[in-house]
Write a structure and sequence with these properties.
Shape: globular
Structural class: alpha/beta
Distance between the termini: 58 Å
Number of strands: 10
Strand order of the largest sheet: 6-7-8-3-9-10
Number of helices: 10
Largest sheet: 6 strands, mixed
Helix content: 25-40%
């Protein structure tokens, strides 16, 4: 691994059980300080890839390396040390609904930093200001909109100034304005902090607008394509074109693989 690479996925195969492979012998590297989008249809292994990097799951074969160190879920002390350098924005925010906006962002600082409450106070307000929500510090989570809640989760994810920020479907369920705000924030925070950003999403347009590099996965854990956003948008590969342009017809089929109608319903159904 060279100094420009923060994460290396080396011939990783993973499945939650023996009946289905989620990721199939994939090798990837993620550049330090860049925004990388991981695109693909549902079930292709995008979120699973983040779970492997975060040590929430372990590869069946191959290895995941973070800044030169192996990610090993069995080595608890090392994993906790590595996780302190990572921030995670979960798909549904995973906020504490009985806490205020302020206390949600303060939580990781109180748990892991050892800082005084006065220092935590100032840091939390700085993080909330970065996402435009300093004035909402005293609100309960139930009092904020879905888009605002996503920004609270982002402020919490950057509370410890992580070197790696992982975003799991950051645009899901947002209206167009909130989606644009969230995309702009991801790019702005990456540029301002120098953090490496991994964005898992279905939203092609938003990801193409903010990413330095794009990886397209397909069901079965295959890497279909990767490169700069403009390269994928201009690709003549049928599978890549179908996904980035949202075309209904192409190599990716609507129906999940199944037996023939004749086999399921009887010979007469084949007619």
């Amino acid at each position: 691994m060279n100094n420009d690479t923060l994460i290396e996925i080396d011939h990783v195969t993973f499945g939650y059980d023996s009946s289905r492979t989620i990721l199939d012998d994939i090798s990837l590297s993620f550049a330090r300080g860049k925004v990388t989008a991981i695109l693909g249809g549902s079930g292709c292994g995008k979120t699973t890839l983040l779970r492997l990097i975060g040590g929430m799951a372990a590869a069946n074969r191959g290895k995941v390396v973070f800044d030169g160190e192996l990610i090993d879920a069995r080595d608890r002390d090392r994993l906790l040390r590595q996780r302190r350098r990572m921030g995670m924005l979960f798909q549904f925010g995973a906020l504490f609904t009985d806490l205020t906006v302020f206390d949600n962002v303060a939580f990781p600082l109180r748990e892991h930093s050892g800082l005084s409450e006065s220092m935590i106070h100032d840091i939390v307000l700085m993080k909330l200001n970065a996402v435009g929500l300093r004035g909402a510090a005293g609100l309960r989570i139930a009092e904020v909109s879905g888009g605002m809640a996503r920004r609270v989760a982002l402020a919490r994810a950057i509370a410890l100034d992580p070197e790696l920020i992982m975003y799991d479907e950051p645009f899901a369920g947002l209206d167009l304005i909130s989606m644009g705000v969230a995309a702009k924030l991801i790019r702005k925070l990456g540029d301002a902090t120098g953090a490496t950003s991994l964005v898992v999403s279905h939203d092609v347009a938003e990801c193409m607008a903010i990413s330095d590099h794009v990886i397209l996965l397909a069901n079965g854990g295959r890497i279909v394509a990767q490169g700069r956003p403009a390269e994928l948008m201009a690709s003549s590969d049928p599978e890549t074109r179908q996904f980035v342009r949202g075309e209904p017809d192409g190599p990716v089929k609507f129906h999940y693989p199944s037996r023939s109608l004749a086999e399921d319903f009887g010979v007469g159904a084949a007619a």
